[in-house]
Amino acid sequence: xxxxxxxxxxxxxxxxxxxxxxxxxxxxxxxxxxEIQDLNVYYRDFHAVTDTSLNIYQNEITxxxxxxxxxxxxxxxxxxxxxxxxxxxxxEGRVTYHGIDLYGSSVDPVEVRRRVGMVFQKPNPFxxxxxxxxxxxxxxxxxxxxxxxxxxxxxxxxxxxxxxxDKLENSAFDLSGGQQQRxxxxxxxxxxxxxxxxxxxxxxxxxxxxxxxETLMRELKKQYTIVVVTHNMQQAAxxxxxxxxxxxxxxEEGQRTGRLVEYDMTDRVFTAPSMKETEDYITGRFG
Amino acid sequence: MLETQGSLDLSGDPRRLxxxxxxxxxxxxxxxxxxxVSVAIVLSLVGEAVAFLxxxxxxxxxxxxxxxxxxxxxxxxxxxxxxxVWHTLAVSGIAMTVATPLGLGAAIYLSEYxxxxxxxxxxxxxxxxxxxxxxxxxxFALRFITPDILRNIWDTTQQSNLMAxxxxxxxLIIPLVSSVSEDAxxxxxxxxxxxxxxLGAKKWHTSLRVVFPAALSGIVAALILGLSRSxxxxxxxxIAAGATGGSLLQLSPLNGGxxxxxxxxxxxxxxxxxxxxxAAFQSLFFVGLLLFLMTLVxxxxxxxxVRRFRQKY
Lengths: 287, 313
Ligand SMILES: Nc1ncnc2c1ncn2[C@@H]1O[C@H](COP(=O)(O)OP(=O)(O)O)[C@@H](O)[C@H]1O
Ligand SMILES: [Mg+2]
Description:
- The complex is a heterodimer.
- By secondary structure, chain A is an alpha/beta fold.
- Chain A has one domain (about 5-120, about 195-280): P-loop containing nucleotide triphosphate hydrolases (Rossmann fold), CATH 3.40.50.300.
- Chain A has helices spanning about 70-80, 110-115, 130-140, 145-155, 160-165, 175-190, 205-220, 235-240, 265-270, 275-280; strands spanning about 30-45, 45-55, 60-65, 90-95, 100, 115-120, 195-200, 225-230, 240-250, 255-265.
- Chain A has a 10-stranded mixed β-sheet with strand order 5-4-1-2-10-9-3-8-7-6, sandwiched between helices.
- Helices cover about 75% and strands about 0% of the residues of chain B.
- Chain B has helices at about 15-60, 80-115, 115-130, 135-155, 160-185, 190-200, 205-215, 215-230, 235-240, 260-270, 270-275, 280-310, and strands at about 70-75, 80.
- The radius of gyration of chain B is 26 Å and the shape is flat.
- Classes of the chains: A alpha/beta, B mainly alpha.
- The structure holds adenosine-5'-diphosphate (ADP) and magnesium ion.
């Protein structure tokens, strides 16, 4: 059911077309959007992530958990080639997106990021109006259409419309932290991506704002595929369909390399983990 | 609880306290001295400027009307301010036309495009450019820009002309404009760039629609600083625009003309020339005060902008 996609930079027209629409409910029949095989990531000569293989499935929420420094963000950022922006970062192995090698020579990272959006740890709205924040992505993609409608539609989908509909021209900085983060989610889905990556989206927020975002995530997965990094085990248990648990191996010279320990359906990982390491971590015995 | 509570002494070592007081006094006197010198300079400027106005009011035939006479010829009691102010604005305008695109272009390149290695090399090179003595740029304008460039485009270009001076001053302030605006762009948080790239923006869009606007007040401050520097620049205009004693108002920048700073420099070269008239000598201070006020206003403006910029992040 995966759509044939063209990620070369020449194709711009369909940049803001809706991603493949929601298909099967549940996870059993979902198809893999990303296939990660033997991924190794280096920052210069620092080996950050070793031999990781996992698939990300459509219309699911996949959680990446593990102690800090185990490479969750690094793996996440391989999925939209954000690591390209880091000087000295090197990715080995194979990452495919709808069957296309993401690191193939004809792939333009700009095209990838239009389909694979990202939400960051700290809310990072642009110092512009709420409206301008939403239309930024579509505008730089050359989208032609009614921006007013797009803004309303997007904010409704992000469950923020009622709170901001009267102050679209206000600065995004006037919003609370939780609202800013939901604006960032709205901004990410305004380009109609296929996948939304979230890197600890709630770690800077209070419990109520966190609850709102989790509700939103469950709503959004009907339309999008979500990969979320979280520090918060309960959050992974509450929202995700699958959970990948990473850990850190400390080498002889003290170098710390992240490694995927276990990847399974979330309820299995949390109720009957197959690895002792996972069990120790989720029961709080270390990490 | 401290056992020695009864005799607890928290008053500190008297020698150290005395030392700290002394150090404080030394720095305080340095600060006070600097302020006093500045105040003295301003007061002497104001005093002489007032004296200048009084002396032309009482001794010159046209009185204060000589401030709007025909041309700037101080030794002939013609002190047309419009002439030198206009020439100064013309030179600054040309300088900013040169320095704005080149300075901002260099800043965007260095901040957003250059690889770290390239940046490490280019930034110091650009800053070396800032160290070129302005007298060198003055002769560069006179001996190269005018004959080899301007004359090839407009053959009526005079030997001394405002255009060459403006271009020379423009080159002189490029490093200032680019390095201050590059700092402003570097201060834009990385998270904003990531947000932009994460939305599928190209480098070009990220630079122009995210980084540039976020750094705008710092960039405007850089331009104001450049403008203020170009107004005050003396050597280049004195050499390239005409070190003659005076000039008529020139509307064409291809003609030579006296700017505010150029006028002051030529008045000050050789005391025998200044001796021509008391008013001529005092006019130096009057023009100096005007210059001071212009650059002061610009510097305060840019200071404000920079502060506003800092508050935002
Ligand atoms: N830009 C970078 N340059 C160098 N090392 C980095 C960089 N980003 C992350 N690392 C290192 O890679 C490892 C994994 O980091 P990260 O993926 O951020 O971990 P996590 O998100 O699980 O906390 C850490 O040891 C971290 O120090
Ligand atoms: Mg992280």
